[in-house]
Design brief:
It is a single chain. By secondary structure, the protein is mainly α. It has one domain. Helix 1 crosses helix 2. The termini are far apart.
Length: 431
């Protein structure tokens, strides 16, 4: 029965995507959490999100012979929206992932490479060739807004009914919403950069109707991060606002910024107070059985991960092998060994080795150069993009905003938007 529903839904998706490829791109964005709909295809595990991406890629390749637009050489071409540098980085990105699978040759590792590396790049190709105008970009923004909207509806229902809310997060004093996800930080990881993006768009758009719509979506995303009590997400959003306030040298709409600061500070302050009190109790009573706090968990995790990487500094642990590799270095018994270290740089280093970490750093530096170029060109979208990426990177210092099906696709949606807005070819002019 499950496969019957999946086939019907996939056929509907294919019909819309074949009619207009951009519609397929929008469907994927709106339905990012459908990676939770897990299926088995000829004995191989997959998700509905993956099926949509593969179907969309095949449609894009065959429809109107669009595959001819892909320049597989490293020569400059106006029709190719990827610079030679970025193309090399993406190819190396895929190859390093293959090496990581070889280090840990398991089907689960191969599945992660497919879901976190191959399919996101496939989606990126379709994305950059489907978005051809300012109007198309607006459709992408609306798709992201629709994603936030339906998650809000689920959040409201969950708040009053506790539907799909794990018992660990349904406590009277620390109730944390998860919506369709299994843990609250998954919601914060998805929405933090979107909140920063829409608030950034609100700060620069002059149209009053659109302006208020952007503000609502930005605040709704912020509220959902707050209801999830995702400290990393709130910190990322706060830093993005702080960067705008300081670097833009603006005081307009300062009232909202102050209000947001108060909201974020109240929760972040509570986070710091709890961790300080916990730390003080441990100093006074080392044998006291104390529940682990977020800061303590991350601190112990980073320490143990660093120790593991000192012995595996070049190859890392291998893809999907972090927990096994870390076990000999695990000392803090009251902290479980999580799936990944709560730091994006340690995460890439442990999963892909030193070369993988280097490629990630180079891609990050490439993004910074694009943002700098947009500022030099006085592109009004420079600020929203900068705030979006700031929230993503800051959140990445205390969590992992990439190693999940929806988050890896979101990363390339963000990269695709940044590339297209900076592109000065004949077809796209975003100013």
């Amino acid at each position: 029965m499950e496969w019957v529903l999946a086939i019907i839904a996939l056929l509907i998706f294919i019909a819309f995507s074949y009619r207009q490829t951009l519609w397929g791109v929008s469907f994927v964005i709106v339905l990012l959490p459908t990676y939770l709909w897990r299926l088995s295809l000829f004995g191989l595990p997959t998700t509905f999100l993956e099926l949509m991406i593969v179907a969309l890629f095949i449609i894009w390749l065959i429809k109107d012979k669009l595959y001819k637009k892909i320049n597989l050489t490293f020569q400059k071409n106006l029709d190719n929206k990827f610079s030679p540098v970025l193309r090399w980085l993406l190819i190396l990105w895929l190859l390093v992932g293959v090496v990581a699978v070889i280090i840990n040759p398991t089907m689960s590792a191969l599945g992660l490479w497919r879901a976190y590396w191959l399919e996101p790049i496939m989606f990126l190709l379709v994305f950059v060739y489907s978005v051809q105008s300012k109007h198309d970009l607006q459709i992408i923004f609306k798709s992201l807004a629709l994603l936030v909207t339906w998650l809000l509806i689920v959040a409201i229902y969950q708040y009053f009914t506790a539907w799909n809310l794990p018992a660990a997060y349904d406590l009277p004093n620390i109730k944390r919403l998860t919506t369709v996800f299994s843990y609250p930080n998954a919601l914060g990881l998805l929405l933090a950069p979107l909140s920063a993006l829409f608030i950034g768009l609100w700060l620069i758009i002059k149209n009053k109707i659109i302006n208020w719509w952007l503000l609502v979506i930005g605040l709704v995303s912020l509220m959902l991060c707050w209801l999830a009590k995702s400290d990393g997400a709130l910190l990322g959003i706060f830093v993005s606002l702080f960067i705008w306030l300081i670097l833009a040298k603006k005081i307009r709409k300062l009232g909202l910024v102050i209000a947001l600061f108060i909201i974020i500070f109240s929760f972040f302050n509570n986070f710091l107070v709890n961790n300080f009190n916990s730390f003080k109790q441990q100093l006074l009573a080392p044998q006291y059985d104390l529940q682990a706090t977020s800061l303590e968990i991350r601190s112990s995790q980073w320490t143990e991960t660093w120790a593991m990487l000192q012995d595996n500094w070049f190859w890392g642990a291998g893809l999907n092998n972090y927990q096994t590799a870390l076990e000999p270095y695990h000392q803090v018994e009251w902290v479980e060994i999580y799936l990944y270290p709560h730091n994006i740089f340690l995460n890439f280093w442990s999963e892909l080795g030193l070369i993988g970490l280097l490629i990630f750093v180079l891609i990050s530096f490439y993004i910074i150069l694009i943002l700098r170029k947009l500022f030099l060109e006085k592109n009004i979208l420079a600020w929203p993009l900068t705030m979006m990426w700031s929230a993503w990177f800051v959140h990445g210092l205390v969590d992992v905003p990439y190693f999940k099906n929806d988050l890896s696709i979101l990363f390339f949606v963000m990269l695709g938007m940044t590339l297209l807005i900076s592109y000065k070819g004949k077809q796209i002019q975003f100013t």
